[in-house]
Design brief:
InterPro entries: AAA+_ATPase, ABC_transp_ATP-bind, ABC_transporter-like_ATP-bd, ABC_transporter-like_CS, Oligopep_ABC_C, P-loop_NTPase. It is a peripheral membrane protein. It comes from Zavarzinia compransoris. The chain is an alpha/beta fold. The protein folds into two domains: 203 residues, 3-Layer(aba) Sandwich (Rossmann fold); 86 residues, no CATH class. Helices cover 32% and strands 23% of the residues. The chain is built from twelve helices and twelve strands. Helix 3 packs parallel to helix 5 and helix 4 crosses helix 5. 39% of the residues are buried. The chain binds adenosine-5'-triphosphate.
């Protein structure tokens, strides 16, 4: 196994909502190895972005530890985070909001180079040209403004900026979900090519199971601020152990495309302000038993580098007729 690049152990993070405290992250552990692509998946509000921002020390966790390239950065002062800031970059969902509209593309891509004291002006200009070529944009894009580009092209600009400092890890938060479907595949291919060429690691935040399957080696499934399942992506998708993972997979458009009836998880996740007692998933779980209402299952290791937080792992995945489970409703459309 390659070296661990970034690792969070037992992170806890609290926020306030309307003055009331709640747990955004509850005992979350995530590791990204050098060159690895890890997917963080879950419904909206499950804590994926909070986990990524805590890993990057944008949010300061209330408890737990963080290591980057072997260094304990849990309590490092801001100047102690320089290596992390340089070697880990982010790509956001919205290529409109994440690029300053008044800056030329050259200035946008050069900004991290300038901030980290990267060489002379002509060297920076040459680096920007290389990066534009790498992401498939013409050299004359450098002098133009973001508004002169389409959504897919803007995401290419954002990717070029993220690659400027040759990072070890790119955290990509729903990098294609704001783009037209026809453009999504192009950006996914670009991200794949870049990884093959540079060996960069990815932490991909998504609720798109097909994207996860296509792009990642390992998957971490979150529900209401906790990790409920993790393991090699191929194994998790082929035989999910947590009923929540099984339901997410069954509800994905890919499952529909494969000719299976589309099913969706009934109801919304509970409010993080008042999480259910016991297993937080039990009110929506088709295989829940009385025990699940009382006790919260720990994330228990399984064979093959997998882990699952469920007292009845694999039951829902093995159920032949997921659509008939009482608490998982058929999609009305
Ligand atoms: N800065 C903040 N202050 C207070 N609450 C926050 C803050 N950021 C996120 N939250 C809340 O924390 C919970 C987790 O949010 P988070 O954005 O991490 O989820 P997510 O899984 O990334 O969702 P999405 O897919 O919608 O981005 C949500 O209930 C959200 O409203």
């Amino acid at each position: 196994m390659p070296e661990i690049l970034l690792e969070a152990r037992h992170l806890h993070l609290g926020f306030r909502l309307g003055g009331r405290p709640f747990k955004a992250l509850d005992d979350v552990s995530i590791a990204v190895h050098r060159g690895e692509a890890v997917g963080l998946v879950g419904e909206s509000g499950s804590g994926k972005t909070s986990a990524a921002l805590a890993l990057l020390r944008v949010h300061r966790p209330a408890a737990g530890s963080l290591h980057f390239a072997g260094q304990d950065i849990t309590h490092a002062p801001e100047r102690g985070l320089r290596a992390l800031r340089r070697r880990v970059q982010m790509v956001f969902q919205d290529p409109y909001g994440s690029l300053d509209p008044r800056w030329t593309v050259e200035r946008i891509i050069a900004e991290p180079l300038v901030a980290h004291g990267w060489g002379r002006r002509d060297a920076i200009a040459a680096r920007v040209r290389d990066l534009l070529a790498k992401v498939g944009l013409p050299a004359d894009a450098a002098k133009r403004l973001p508004s002169q580009f389409s959504g897919g092209q803007r995401q290419r600009i954002a990717i070029a900026r993220a690659l400027a400092l040759s990072p070890d890890l790119v955290v990509a938060d729903e990098p294609v979900s704001a783009l037209d479907v026809s453009i999504q595949a192009q950006i996914v291919n670009l991200l794949q090519d870049i990884r093959a060429e540079t060996g960069v690691a990815y932490l991909l935040i998504t609720h798109d199971l097909a994207l996860l399957h296509r792009m990642t080696d390992r998957t971490v499934v979150m529900y209401l601020g906790r990790v409920v399942e993790s393991g090699p992506t191929a194994a998790v998708v082929a035989a999910p152990q947590h009923p929540y993972t099984a339901a997410l997979i069954a509800a994905s458009p890919a499952a529909k495309a494969a000719g299976r009836e589309r099913i969706v998880l009934a109801g919304d996740p509970p409010s993080p302000l008042s999480p259910p007692a016991g297993c937080a998933f039990h009110p929506r779980c088709p295989v829940a038993r009385p025990r699940c209402r009382l006790h919260s299952p720990p994330l228990a290791p399984q064979d093959g580098g997998r882990a699952v937080a469920c007292f009845y792992p694999g039951e829902l995945a093995a159920a032949p007729a997921l659509a008939e489970c009482p608490r998982i409703a058929r999609n009305g459309r």
